[in-house]
Amino acid sequence: EIPVTYQFEIVQPLVFQIYDVDTRYHNIPVKTLKLQYQDFIGEASCVLSEIFTKCDRTLTLKLQSKHRNGAPKDVGLLRVHAEESITSRSAVEVILRCSHLDNKDLLSKSDPFLQISRKVETGGCVPVCKTEVINNNLNPVWKPLCLSMQQFGSKDNPLIIKCYDFNSSGNHALIGQLQTSISNLERLCREKTGINFVKPHDRREKVLKAQLFVDLFREKQLYSFLDYISSGFELNFLVAVDFTASNGNPRSPNSLHYIDPSGRLNPYQQAIMEVGEVIQFYDYDKQFPAWGFGGRTVDGNISHCFNLNGSPYDSEVQGIEGIMAAYSLALTNVALSGPTLFGKVIHKAAEIAGRSLAQNRNKYYVLLIITDGVLTDLQETIEALVKASDLPLSILIVGVGGADFTEMEILDADNGRRLESTTGRVATRDIVQFVPMREVQAGAKPIVQALLEELPGQFLTYMRSRGIKPLNVSQDTMPSSC
């Protein structure tokens, strides 16, 4: 057994070298062996994600050595099996409700959310999860929350639940807090009773009228991202590229679309390559839809969702190389124009995801949008994202260039406030991750890592919210509430 830390957001290449170890070295620890004194048999390589995407998590590789003339020679097979090391898959699902919360706003009611933390031995607290924000409500009922026992250790470990009034500045106002445990939450549900919040006041704790109730408590198995992937679920990659005029003339070296003869990648190529190289291993046929938006196509019309490959019928290309080739071709056939509109490409991706969902296909879609400009259709984009939040779809947005991307931050609901349509419909989950390339390049974290680190969580939120289990697990066992 060789322990390896799995990281979805990066490509993790593995190289296996096989040696024939002389018998006199058999009792020597492996790490102290001097390989130059052993007989090299052959080697094989793969990417860690290739193993996990096999249904039995087993990959057979060809072992190869080199002939004296340098040509590779098959010398056998190596079977590699991966197992996920998880302390516990147990979890509880709860629906939390509050009553009689204090009003912290002058012109409206509080916008409450809960933060749950685990107390540690040093006396401090480690935040574990939080609910969504519910606007203008002093008696909120939050969506089901899944609490992993691996995070909390045991049912009796103390938890701190704090209720805040959301403020867009990030300076959230504390409404009240309480100490409880998983066991106590179960008891509250069973007995249909509440527990009062308290608030620090003059070195004492003031008991508030506000109470926390547990409307649902049920234990369940918590399947991991790799459980789904190794059972046959796929991630399908889609790309949309900004062809607006603000990118600059593609023939100019100063353009964001400039194709450098030296082979140096422009920001669009860099984003496609880095994200695509990770996700391609989770897509079985590697047929990727690739679109452009904001460009004037060969028919003279400005289009906000055209096929990069120039085909009037089919948007799919083969592999990451196919996307790169189609992108280069489009730069010669499409004139940069504008404005910057996301709505149509999001609707197109949602249409594909919706069709797949209707056919019960085991696919989850990942749309990468690369743009240099400020959104012109912000509200239409929000409407499309709210609608798409019910679908097996995540959207990654990369901002390139020096534009003001403040509006993009609105789309990425990392502050806890979910997107809301003009009709009052709230997104069921956060499906957007936005990263400005200039900020990532200034730091130590690669752009692909910043973009993809939330994706497994978004995938799991979707699967769990719909009660979807891995394909090798029976779907008919639904736990009952208390």
Automatic annotation (TrEMBL):
**Which Gene Ontology cellular component terms are annotated?**
plasma membrane
Is this entry keyworded Plastid? no
Q: Which PROSITE patterns match?
A: C2, VWFA
Gene Ontology molecular function, alphabetical: calcium-dependent phospholipid binding
Q: Which CDD domains match?
A: C2B_Copine, vWA_copine_like
Task: Provide the alphabetized UniProt keywords.
Answer: Repeat
Q: Which residues form the VWFA domain?
A: 236-455
For whether the record's keyword set contains Repeat, the answer is yes
Query: A single GO BP annotation from the record?
Result: cellular response to calcium ion
Residue intervals of the C2 domain: 74-199
The record ties this protein, via Pfam families, to:
C2, Copine
Family under the similarity heading: Belongs to the copine family.
Q: Any idea what this protein is called?
A: C2 domain-containing protein
What is the organism field in this record? Answer: Opuntia streptacantha (Prickly pear cactus)
